[in-house]
Amino acid sequence: MSDQDRKPFYITTAIAYTSSKPHIGNTYDPVLADAIARYKRQRGFDVYFQTGSDEHGQKIQLAAEKEGISPKAYVDRVSGQIKAVWDSLDIACDRFIRTTDADHEKAVQAIFKKLYEQGDIYKGKYEGKYCVPCESFFTPSQLVDGKCPDCGREVSDASEEAYFLRLTKYQDRLLRFYEEHPDFIKPDSRRNEMVNNFLKPGLSDLCVSRTSFTWGIPVEFDPGHVTYVWLDALSNYITGLGYHPDGSGPLYHRYWPAALHVIGKDIVRFHTIYWPIILMALGEPLPEQVLGHPWLLFGEDKMSKSKGNVLYADELAARFGVDAVRYYLLSQIPFAQDGNITYESFIAVYNADLANTLGNLVNRSVAMAGKYFGGTVRRPKETGAGPDAELCAAAAATVEKLADAMDVWHNADALGSVLELAKRCNKYIDETAPWVLAKSEESRPRLEAVLYNLLECIRMLGVMLLPFLPRSAEKILAQLGISGDLASYDALVFGEAEEFTVGAPEPLFARIDADKILAELAAEKEAAAKAAEASAKAGNAAGIVSLPQIGIENCG
Predict the structure, then answer these.
(1) pLDDT tens digits along 367-383
(2) How far apart are CA 109 and CA 92, in angstroms?
(3) Model-level pTM greater than 0.85?
(4) Residue 260 and residue 288 in contact, taking contact as beta carbons nearer than 8 Å
(5) Angstrom distance (rounded) from CA 60 to CA 57
(6) 441: exposed, middle or buried (C-beta count within 10 Å: 0-12, 13-18, 19+)?
(7) Distance CA 277, CA 273 (A)
(8) Which DSSP category does 485 fall into?
């Protein structure tokens, strides 16, 4: 089937802000979107997946100045770090867009000009409170204890000439859109928050240009102004497809409107109020759905470099494996509640789910097929009653549960159902006791049927895991000698394989010695602290002042 015959599915993530290397909480967006994209490809959709980096703004200019380098050199480095982290997690996007890309900058300038010429952007003056890390303006009444309501940091007085987008003009139209499209924002709690906290009290027009710094896309007809972050950053979802007010390219016509924007809950307001209004003003269709997922906390706390509780996904992947990190992210963050991570919890989940349940199942099943039948196991003429029928029914039910969960983005529930099938397979081994059947020549037909049932369930597990744990799933299928049609979603029917020819078992997930690893990590942390202390002393002796890094913990 050609791409044109398949239904298009355009999925995006929030683009990562280039203030610093992303921590593991920041990687949930692209890992989740990658899993959804892979699942949709399995289901026959023509998928286009875009992620990228957000590279303009005052924070970047200040950070570059403190390092004595140009803003472009600064974002080139950090964007490269972001892309490297994404690559380390096997995130397979169709485009990694940068807001410094020439096509994006030209399109943003044209968008700004179009909205200005039709009266949706006007020139005025801003006076109020400003939060540099969040790059957001607030009225005094919006502050919480005199501080930024989003990040809790100090704000400063701001007064400057600026251009504004007329949010007020589209407020009623957006509210009607919400009413007509109740599934536009998921989970539902995020939708209720937008309506009750922002739309019903009334919107204020949005500042979309700045004059107090220069690192941004210049306003073409007023060079003293640069385009302010949200008009620049949000537009990437259409500029990355070749959108231009004067005529858009084939990718835009093929894939827009987006099927799904995957973002963190902290930037839902920007994606469900500002972004829809920008699109309404441009006369373009709105995305079908915005998923505002919860956060990944360190224990019970938000990750923060100042607290010293930041974990990095690429470092975890290097130590424990790529799929171990993907599994934890995709299985341990509920749909509507925050998840949490510590080294202890990561190791516990790894050992219980991946090593003991999934890895052990594959290893011993393949080993028994090799030991008892020289590696070749054929399909029985019919499925037996009792445990056989129950296992077959469990496999079929799991396929349905997986689809039901993934079609509404409940990835943790989807993975949970797959793991339950693996547990059911391990129980089936205990019920049928293949090692006992192997003692009698008369039991060989029954033994072969038992091993076929196990290997067929493992084949189905491998296919279902492909979107989530691509490397491990491919290893599972390779150990079973499975490829081609039998590795497709359409073959998720128990009994599709006629036979299996397996090779030597290869362990998927080696069990982790928790005490040993935690001791190593503690020693590494202590050594790093001593090195940092020594470096600081050397710097002070040389008259060097250490400057704090500017950044935000959750970027848009």
Answers:
(1) 999 999 999 999 998 87
(2) 29
(3) yes
(4) yes
(5) 6
(6) exposed
(7) 6
(8) G
